[in-house]
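Most newcomers find our protein records easier to grasp once they have seen one. The structure tokens are whole numbers drawn from a learned vocabulary of backbone shapes. The record below serves as our worked example for the rest of this section.
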Amino acid sequence: MIADHAAEQAVLIISADLALRKRLQKAIKSFFPAQQHPTLMAFGDEKALIQQHFAAPRQYRFIFIDAELEQAKPDGLCALIHSAQAGPVLLVAGEVERVVEVCAERGANACIRREHLADSLVHDAMRSAKQAFDYRVRAAYADNRLKDVAEHLADWRWEIDADLNLAYASRSAAGRSPLISAGTAFVNNFLPDERSRLQRDLAGA
């Protein structure tokens, strides 16, 4: 186990393939200036150990995940690391692996083909992953800020989905009536006359 401040300066490789680890370590070292080489860490295909490791808050410069892991499933790792915002995730995969699409949906920021591990290609993927990760972090922060503001306003704030059901209602609104909750029909929160007018207006929208 490592201290959190050490992890912040480290790059983590999760792979049981020693040749792959060595190849990635070479590319990673050449990505950083000589005086700024990060600590390089590695886990094998050790599901329990990896889950225990990420149970505590961690932050890495980059995290490389081998798509050929069997015990520590790559898609599960991507979801775990994404939810913890532990750092940019790069998946190393073969050409036609279904796991690539699944991992992208679950938080992988970039993918590197196993047969294309030239330093320059790894560096390009690292830059792309960092940019995608930073964007996701900023978007999540902005969304949380918006929700915090909405919760502290006296006015009712809501969002409706394509079926005109409430997708979100601010706490100030939900506290007024048990009917005001996500999943309920938006128009049901109004008096009958107003409800009829809204239904006509929304039907014609």
Q: What stands out?
A: The chain is about 45% helix and 15% strand. The mean pLDDT is 81. The radius of gyration is 23 Å.
